[in-house]
């Protein structure tokens, strides 16, 4: 028979110790989580986005090269870097939480599941649309200019 089960005071002390240990663990998790940041650069390095543990942008750095881009291209690079950084939060959180949670896989699974749900892997980027190499108008003349042709029509 468990001696603590027979002694209510011992049982209360044991519960209090468990509660204190969980509170300490929760405080440590909060401190570590608050320090998590992920930075992602665009492929050419002109855009850098940093997000915090909640996926909120905490820094955005643009080089002079970024400012020479078309607005749509710059927006796409900023959003792409942000989404890629957000998708990396779960891995970073798992890395910093593993020493704290140890074998508590239920808590880790719940924590990581929330991050994977909120920040899925970004869709692969479509290559830039290619411009047609032929004539710019929609004619059936194959680019031949009959007005300059000596043979005429």
Automatic annotation (TrEMBL):
InterPro entries listed in its UniProt record: YbaB-like_sf (IPR036894), YbaB/EbfC (IPR004401)
Specify the domain of life of the species encoding this protein: Bacteria
Fetch the Pfam families from UniProt: YbaB_DNA_bd
For region Disordered, the annotated ranges are 107-153
Know the name of this protein? YbaB/EbfC family nucleoid-associated protein
